[in-house]
Write the structure tokens for this entry.
Amino acid sequence: MFIAALGDVHGQWRVAMLLIEWACAEADITSDSLAAIFQVGDAKPLRCEEEISQVPGPSKYRKLGDFPHVINGESK
């Protein structure tokens, strides 16, 4: 059983997916072999612009990111 873990995505879900694919390639496994993927830290799964106001902390972290592409199926 293989498990992936990454942290502080900060709304960059496509980059996170690329990193997981890269790590799997380095380990000579496929991402389908992963039993679980854990994201720890600041994920920022914001669905729309209106949710940005709910993000605590410095304004430099208040960005939509690409999570909307994940939830609508554009990104796996």
Remarks:
- The longest strand covers residues 34-40.
- The two ends are 21 Å apart (CA to CA).
- Strands lie at 2-7, 34-40.
